Amino acid sequence: MSTLSYIKNFLTDKNVASITPSSTACVKHVCKKIDFNKKFVIFEYGPGTGVFSRYLLDHMTKDSRLILIELNNNFVEKLREEFIDERVRIFDDSAEEVGTIAENLGIENADYVLSGIPFSFLEDDQKLNILQQTYDLLRAGGKFLAYQTSGHLKVPIRKIFGQVHTELELLNIPPMLVYEAVKSAN
């Protein structure tokens, strides 16, 4: 999908946070925190047109699973056209439904949750609900990886996960703050 199409969705859908897909540098920066040598289950919130999804599919094992949760109908249609792969499931839904989606798929735990949804656009209770469901879904040692345009997510993540590590990715429009939170073994 072109940048022009991204802009059109940005202008008509309050849940779309960017006018352009994430850069290759941003994708690689976030995904370097994933161990692609092992089988895993990963949920992606807000995959947009699938820039991260494509990278994940190209690098994950043949027995890994990728669950995409996207709220924008135009993006969902694009994802369904693009990703015809038995490892992928696509849901036209909100990340607030991740617990129900996982339950319906028979998934007890995920190894990773990757998110590009604009948490800054969400009400505090929605934000905390998604983060709590994410924490509950992850196995011990599982990672929540998010990329956002600011540091607004640090406090809510700390509230749920306890700790969060952040790094800046400048080679993206706009620059992104990459968050990494690991579920403790307790």
Description:
This protein is α/β, with parallel strands linked by helices and 186 residues long. The chain has one domain: Rossmann fold (3-Layer(aba) Sandwich). Helix content is 36%, strand content 24%. The protein is built from seven helices and seven strands; from the N terminus they run H-H-E-H-E-H-E-H-E-H-E-H-E-E. The chain has helices at 3-12, 24-31, 51-59, 73-82, 98-105, 124-137, 154-161; strands spanning 41-45, 65-70, 88-92, 110-115, 138-148, 165-169, 176-182. Strands 3-2-1-4-5-7-6 form a seven-stranded mixed β-sheet, with helices on both faces. Strand 1 (41-45), helix 3 (51-59) and strand 2 (65-70) form a beta-alpha-beta unit. It is globular. The model is unreliable at 6-17 (pLDDT under 50).
Summarize the structure.
With 186 residues, the protein is α/β, with parallel strands linked by helices. The chain is built from seven helices and seven strands.
Please name the fourth-level CATH homologous superfamily. Vaccinia Virus protein VP39
The residue-averaged pLDDT reads 91
CATH topology: Rossmann fold
CATH architecture: 3-Layer(aba) Sandwich
- The secondary-structure element order is HHEHEHEHEHEHEE
Structural class based on helices, strands and sheet pairing? alpha/beta
- Computed CA radius of gyration, to the nearest angstrom: 15 Å
Spans of at least 5 consecutive residues whose pLDDT stays below 50 are: 6-17
Distance from N terminus to C terminus (CA atoms, Å) equals 42 Å
Question: Largest sheet at a glance?
Answer: 7 strands, mixed
User: Which percent range fits the helix content?
Assistant: 25-40%
Number of structurally distinct domains: 1
How does the overall form come out from the CA principal axes? globular
How many DSSP helices? 7
DSSP E strands, number: 7
Strand order of the largest sheet: 3-2-1-4-5-7-6
CATH class: Alpha Beta
**Proportion of β residues?**
15-25%
